[in-house]
Amino acid sequence: MQAASLIRQAVQGFKRILGEKHGLTLRAQCTLGGVLADAGSADEGVLLLRQALRRFEETLGVKHYETLLTVCSLSHALWRQGRQQDSEAASRRALEGLTEILGEEDPCVLRAQHDLGVALASQGKFQEAAVVYRQLIPRREKVLGMEHWDTLCTCNCLASVLNAEGDHQGAEEQARRAYEGSQRMFGQDHYATMGWSINLVHALVAQRKYEEAEALLMHLL
């Protein structure tokens, strides 16, 4: 948690010099909230992000870029906290607002769209999540590239929801793309390659392609 400690010091310094409502203070507080949420302290992270959001709304308005970026960060922290419905609502707000300001292909909009898919999938809304991911993949391909980490991550997420829906052939296609792309970029033993192989194994076993599934599993063991 060294990073969180350093950012916390920065937040305290900004508050002392600039005040609690200054933009730099609030941005640093958002960064701290996000880091804490990812590090397992989601409760504190959500609290800090809600405080920053309320101040951004008061000073900049509910549809300002900074406000909506904070909503996007809050949606992720809420997901970390296990509050999937709240995460979905925040993701929708961020996605709609940022799309209106920045357009459909801005990286911030793409992040909000991905977070919405994750929140939907976490609630078992697999069909809705699949629609979100299918819309997102070509946008990430265009903006980031065919084998960018974020593009492949979305392919893997789509594979997961397709497996859950019973579309194992579609899941295999997406999972194979994510797995093979990760292999080329990071190597066979990278954590992403190994983690993303799980959806591929699931899809293969469901289609009784046991030999290939066994070969993949043997490498994981």
What does the model show?
By secondary structure, the protein is an all-alpha fold. It has helices at residues 2-18, 23-38, 42-60, 65-81, 84-102, 107-122, 126-144, 149-165, 168-186, 191-206, 210-220. The chain has a domain at 138-221: Alpha Horseshoe (Serine Threonine Protein Phosphatase 5, Tetratricopeptide repeat). The protein is built from eleven helices and no strands. Helix 2 runs parallel beside helix 4, helix 6 (107-122) runs antiparallel to helix 7 and helix 10 packs antiparallel against helix 11 (210-220). The radius of gyration is 19 Å and the shape is elongated. The two termini are 31 Å apart.
List strands and helices in order, with pairings.
Layout: H1 2-18, H2 23-38, H3 42-60, H4 65-81, H5 84-102, H6 107-122, H7 126-144, H8 149-165, H9 168-186, H10 191-206, H11 210-220
Provide a concise account of the structure shown.
The protein has helices spanning 2-18, 23-38, 42-60, 65-81, 84-102, 107-122, 126-144, 149-165, 168-186, 191-206, 210-220.
Which secondary-structure class do the elements indicate? mainly alpha
User: What is the fold named in CATH at topology level of the domain at 138-221?
Assistant: Serine Threonine Protein Phosphatase 5, Tetratricopeptide repeat
The span between the termini is 31 Å
CATH homologous superfamily title of the domain at 138-221: Tetratricopeptide repeat domain
Query: Strand percentage, roughly?
Result: under 5%
